[in-house]
Amino acid sequence: MTTTAAATPRPGTTEAPRRETGKESGGTLNVFSHAFLVLWVVLAAGPLIWVALTAFRPSAEILSDPAGWPAAFHWENFTNAWNKADIGRYTINSLIILAGSLTGTMLLGSMAAYVIARFTFPGNRVVFMLFAGGMMFPVILALVPLFAVMENFGLLETRPGLIIAYIAYSLPFTTFFLTSFFRTLPTGVQEAAMVDGASHTRTFFQIMLPMAKPGLVSIGIFNFLGQWNQYLLPLLLNNEETKNYVLPQGLASLAVSQGYRGDWGALFAGLTIAMLPVLVVYAVFQRQVQAGLTAGALK
Amino acid sequence: MKTGTRVGEPPPSNNSKNSKNAQKSDDSRNSTGSEAARGEGEPPPTPLPGLLLWPAVLLPPGLTPKRVRYDRRYRTLDKYRFILGFLAVPLAFYALFVVSPFLQAIYYSFTDWSGGPVANFIGFDNYRKMWDDARFWDSLQVSALLLVITPVVTLVLGIFFAYMITAGGRHRRGQAIAGVAGSSFYKVVYFFPQVLSVSIVAVVWGRVFNTNSGLINGGLDKAGIEGPAWLGGDETLALIALLTVISWSFVGFYVVLFSAAMGAIPKDIHEAALLDGAGRARTFFGVTLPLIWDTVRTGWIYMGIQALDTFAICLVMVPAHVLKVTPVFLYERFRDGQYGYATSIGVVLLVLSVAFSLIVMRVGNRDRIEY
Lengths: 299, 371
Description:
A: 78% helix, 0% strand, B: mainly alpha, MetI-like fold, 18 helices, disordered N terminus
């Protein structure tokens, strides 16, 4: 009904010309809107493409003509970035931290969410509000005391310390998101498992977690990006030894140090190496990423 | 459900309120309750002494005798054991490393803490010091400008592009509203900056704005214009650069958000507007914008808070002597060892963001339109 209403003009005198102008303005708007949309494509992707292209140019060429096209494609910058500028080391550091923090976040977050969503116990509501409230506070406020707490536990400048911090600051949203997800799952399956004599733990790991897979994937991608890109926490808790830096930290310090060395090519190559995997993950999972990140802001 | 338990089967569920009450009443009628623990073909058991249940709590369920496992009271204990076991670690992490630092921050803002074990209570001295600190006001001026300007710029661009994507297409088959071709391509590209780390965004744009070897000045050079030192000294230019980068990285986010909101508006509403002879602009201001206003307001608050929290982009991209935002000022005080003073700046930032949210809620409050 919705499409035919406008498609078949009613036998009236004014209807036909009105539709005509509507079509026309749609046409001009079409050209006009495409022009603007393409302009923003250039603005959004331009700096990133420039970085990727410049990564193939020798440093001297970059300095003399920064906006130029690469004369030939040189791969040396990439090997320099990976080996000499320590991008390889930073990538491995990031991977190690992420392996621990992402696993921990998903496990602890889903455990807490399951209990909150599926069991009634005194304080259930309080625990939920506690997690939900944590999403609203600016991390910068907790910065200084967090540093002291980590120092007291002997976790400063350690990998476990950084992993724990990532987990703790990812828990509020992860728990909040998964709680509402577990609530939507049918209760019957859980009851059937209990009737068959499965323990609570077993019901959770073998029945409920597999059922919650779509929710786990969304929040998993969200946390993957958030933790891989994390800059503030490592800056605070992992700042002393350059060799322990994670990728975002390493690139920020590289931007300073390459300036002294004058090796801009390696910096551009490092940036490209750092951006590529994230953009690939995004291109593959774009729908989930867009949904996950926008939900993250507004829930 | 009660009949089920009488035969010695585990109750189908013990997470609903009803079953909990049922358990309680069964516990009070102790002798009948443990009769339920009888397995098939076993002699009627003597009531289990309550004390026996407690050691069972420490055993894994597999090693717990059936007789104990089917006891009502054990089942309650088992449930709470599970809840505690699953909540303990997440809650401990969260309480220790998130909640407690936040609460401590408020306390320490009233002390002269400098990192050591001693923190003397000094009342509002930190806040008085802040009031007289010209550097703080300089940084706050930058942050306040970002707080006011960034949301407007970013949201206007976001709404504009979202409307172009959802309604800018050519009419096909007489549709009242048509998306442009390749709308998902646009959204994917616009969203790129959102998935990158802020530090990478800052380094990339630091290079783009570089005076001698940057993309902008390199391009201007080709046109025969000598570009200015964007981040080299002039405060206004650096502020414009900062604003550009923040908006650049968030526009895609709002395009996705608003086009989702616009897509949720029922098609016949736009059709009605078209039939009534409303043009594109009129349709937008009269129909589309009011209908997505709730999303716009939430986005406005979120963007304002993001702008106020701007830290990494400023720290990495803009040289500290040119200009700094308040969070960078806070970070510098922390590195100086003025922990108490730094936390009080954090508290002021929190108050500002709460105040901003309340004002936007108030100002942006319109009658909600249900559809």
